[in-house]
Amino acid sequence: MGIPLALAGAVFMSLGAQYQHRGVEKVERITGVEGTTGLSSAQLKALLTRPSWLIGTLMLGLAIVCQLSAIAIAPLIVVQPLGAVALVVTTLLNARISGHSPTRQSLIAIAACIGGIFLFVSLAALYATERPIRDQDLFMILTILLLVIIVFGAGWLILRHRMRAMFYVTGAGVLYGFVATLAKAVISRIQAQNFDWLTVACLIALIAAATVGAYFVQTAYSSGPPDLVIAGLTVIDPIVAVLIGALVLGEADAAPVWVLIMFVVAGAIAVWGVFGLARYHPQVLSESQELGITRGSGPAPGADSPGAEPAQRGEARTQRGPDDGDAPLGT
């Protein structure tokens, strides 16, 4: 039952990503301000008035319910990577909506993401084991999470004007990996009727990580296409969750050495696919050409100042076609 629940969650995730991406772009057009360095409080409030964003949030909520139900009845490292199915659905939807058909290089990157993750799942399904989560395991997870939040928070404060989609996608993926693990821990302790102060601390940490991760996701929608965001989440999230499950919770203790090596190989292939998609995604390349930007080389000659780029990008978005508001996907 855990596997079909995880697959249903993946479908809801892909639909939610498309609707939320539409809402973020709409708010950017209305406010006339790019959100690539972080959405402002005014933009966050405006999102609450966009029907498309609210529909996307509802679908992501359903995805979370499916995911939590899956990890409650199956090992974390089996069901968590199945979210990669969302990448396939999101890629097809975004190609239809944006008119940017996948290129050969982007398809290779997507295949690497999905192939690496499903190799992960196949091995995990054969060798994953579960044991009760101990208090010292939770202390270790909470300590690592605190360090992760400090690192990403400092990076955002210091370098946010230079960050692009991959920073936010990576940050969200890492944080959501901790969210999945903490959710598994909280559910297990509640099932065991062990709702103590440590369970409350895990619940607070879960909410904090989910909130920061959600902010990173919304900002990533402002600086990258939705299937790139989903690619990062469905690869980085399960890899982090699997690492925690294997190294801290001992879910891979029964796996032989060659399986652990294959875990590393599969993870490396999937991560390579994410960075390949960030580099060769047709929508990213198209926006770069509209702005006269050579990929990886910064603004084109003739740009008056670094501050001119966001405005130009906004103009390029606006010129793509008439504002279709919050029409249903595919129309």
Explain what you see.
Helix 1 (2-31) packs across helix 10 (226-247). The chain has 13 helices and no strands. It has helices spanning 2-31, 41-47, 51-73, 76-79, 85-98, 104-127, 135-159, 165-191, 197-223, 226-247, 257-280, 282-290, 308-318. It has 331 residues and is mainly α. It has one domain. The two termini are 35 Å apart.
Radius of gyration: 20 Å
Helical proportion, percent range = over 70%
The dominant shape is globular
Number of domains: 1
Span of the ends, CA to CA: 35 Å
Structural class estimated from helices and strands: mainly alpha
Oligomeric state of this protein: single chain
| Helix and strand element order | HHHHHHHHHHHHH
Number of helices: 13
What would the average pLDDT be, to the nearest integer? Answer: 76
Give the uncertain stretches in residue-range form: 287-325
Percent of residues in β-strands: under 5%
Number of strands: 0
Biggest sheet, open or closed, and with what strands and sense? none
